[in-house]
Amino acid sequence: MIQVLLIIHLLVAIALIMLILLQKSEGSAAGGGMSATASVSAMAQPRARPNPLSRMTTILGIGFFATSLGLALLAKPADAPTSIFAPKVDGPAVPSIENSVAPAVPSDAAPAAPQSPPGESPAPAAPTVPNN
User: Is residue 11 situated within a structural domain?
Assistant: First the structure.
């Protein structure tokens, strides 16, 4: 089903592009307000009557929107939650911060001396100097 809808969507998109390129430009239609040639008299003129190309473009635009919406609905996974606020129940539980216990580390413990590899003599310790 999704392949058929995808082919229809691509055909509608190609036809829509071709119809838009075939249409005649209306001078000050889309970006005419930004150019220096736009005037009050040009903007006050009535729009031209819709011709068959513009009607067909409107119909294909509605069809493109409908096929896009259909493809989005068909591509949605079946097990997706219906709301962003509804958590997925069947997944593993996430531990909370209150229940977790940090390992106890004694504050007065000295750092452990590095171990030497087997077969080698350990490095001599640095001499200690008493404080006066």
Answer: yes
Instruction: Tell me the average pLDDT across 14-43.
Output: 70
14-18 long-range contacts, Cβ below 8 Å, gap at least 24? 15/60, 16/57, 16/60, 16/61, 16/64
DSSP, collapsed to helix, strand or coil, labels residue 59 as: helix
Domain count, the chain: 1
Does this model's pTM top 0.70? My answer is no
Contact 20, 53 (CB under 8 A): no
pLDDT at position 113, please? 59
How far does CA 129 lie from the centroid of its chain?
Answer: 64
12 occurs within a structural domain:
yes
d(CA 64, CA 70): 10
Is residue 92 in a domain? no
What's the CA angle centered on 103, arms 97 and 109, to 5 degrees? Answer: 145
- CA dihedral sign, ordered 31, 35, 41, 42: negative
Helix (H, G, I), strand (E, B) or coil at 124: coil
Asked if residue 119 is part of any domain, the answer here is no
